[in-house]
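Subject: Re: docking follow-up (flavin mononucleotide)

Dear J.,

Thanks for your patience while I sorted out the input files. As discussed at Tuesday's group meeting, I've set up the holo structure prediction with flavin mononucleotide included as the bound ligand rather than trying to dock it afterwards. The sequence and the ligand SMILES I used are pasted below, so you can double-check that they match what you have on your end before we go further.
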Amino acid sequence: MKALVVYESMFGNTAAIAKAIVSGLRETMNVDLHEVQDAPTAPSDDIDLIVAGGPTHAFSMSRTATRTDAMAKGAIHGKVDFGLREWLDGIPAGHHAASLATFDTRVTKVRHLPGSAARSAAKVGHKHGFTTGSSPESFYVEDIDGPLHEGELERATAWGRELGALVAAS
Ligand SMILES: Cc1cc2nc3c(=O)[nH]c(=O)nc-3n(C[C@H](O)[C@H](O)[C@H](O)COP(=O)(O)O)c2cc1C
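The structure tokens for the complex came back this morning:
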């Protein structure tokens, strides 16, 4: 069983979550991890599961304007002109052998507000022909630049473990 994990991260929090998800997945799957700008745009047919995530910006996936804003606020990772939205848009539409699971990071104190990058990414994934075996998942940060809310790395590893079990059972 093979998984591809793709993440966007500007302040490093989503990167840490992605790595924690990978450690859960690796209990049952072979996993490749890529930052979004280095991820394959045509994932190979032997991949069973794609896990894709990024930071929630303005209630959705980031855009050039919000990534520019993040840079102005001190972000040191990522690229202004390319993120999760652009990567997903670049995947050809049609049937995909892999199922898609999406995640994001969001700020704890506005968790009651609607809108998450994970939900937006899942919608785009459906349009591109992916099936999703799991609900979009959010992980929480205390502020724009972090840190992660306590326990989120452990929750991410557990989520990765669950995804691996779902794939094995399907
Ligand atoms: C321009 C901008 C817009 C944001 N909008 C939201 C938002 O709508 N909802 C939210 O919960 N967090 C929002 N945030 C906080 C991000 O979700 C947070 O910076 C991100 O989770 C950190 O992940 P990273 O370290 O991987 O970049 C925003 C951050 C920036 C820079």
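A couple of observations from a first look. The chain has a mean pLDDT of 95. The first strand starts at residue 2 and ends at 7.

Let me know if you'd like me to rerun anything.

Best regards,
T.
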